[in-house]
Amino acid sequence: MDELASRQYPVQEHMAFQRRMWIVQRIGWVMLGVISLAALFGLFGYGVLSKRTATGAEMSVEYERFERATRLASFVFRFAASANAERRLHLNRAFQEGFEISSIQPPPLRSSVDADGIDLTFAVTPSVANQIVIWARPHRYGTVGIDARVDDTPPVELRVFIYP
Amino acid sequence: MDSVIKACVVYFVLWAIIRISGRRTLGEMTAFDFILFLIIGGSTQRAITGEDYSLTNALILVATFVGIEVTLSFIELKSPMLRRVLNSSPTLLVENGSPMRYRMRRARVTEDNILEAARRLHGLERMDQIKFAILEPTGKITIVPMS
After folding, report:
1. A118: closest CA of chain B, how far (Å)
2. Using the beta-carbon criterion (under 8 Å), do B92 and A14 form an inter-chain contact?
């Protein structure tokens, strides 16, 4: 009995096509496994492949390289110790357009806007390291290049890819 | 605009995943399969509607889904090849009482599955009473008894 031959009776078979489909199915199962593994390691956010720390002269930022639209994302800003009692965090327009801020901990003393983004001024304790956390929801798909700057130091660049 | 795109993406991704999983999954639904489909439905539903619970969005989604269905049914009428790609084609699993092991293994159907269908549909007890067992595109097993 040749199982690979197509029968015409009782039904019209297409065994060549059917065998190709069986192969495609097996490839598909492998792909499903790969997707799950990639997700486990954080290729779609929240894992070892996604966690990033960007470091500048006066500040380091902890964030996720991969985010998902509408899922709450956190940005942890650590300011180096300084003599000032106030520090100004500047975030560029890409952040303003890509993210909807849900909460800022602690809340800033003042916020203002300028030509290329938003300014948040925080009360900080002088001569110790201070930490600010911004929780925000991404509302745009694709890569967002965020520039974060504390006072007038050079900006720290954060590149975030947002999945739909 | 993005509701229509989301609906199309979800339709085709779900189609691809269910097609990849093999037709066994759809045809003979176990209690666990039922739960699985509830979960699939629940998690995709929120991805499509997002935070937009408006009547307009619901209407757009329903119109898009029904539109895709109608369009695909027309395409299937025109092209038998696409019909096979979209829905698969029937495959013989038992011929004149002898099970076709290679095909059964590939389709992940066991002898027990075939005998169960034979009992249920025709009250048959043994493999040699089955003339043909056919795995249909719907995932169901059809039995033609020996005359």
Report:
1. 26
2. no
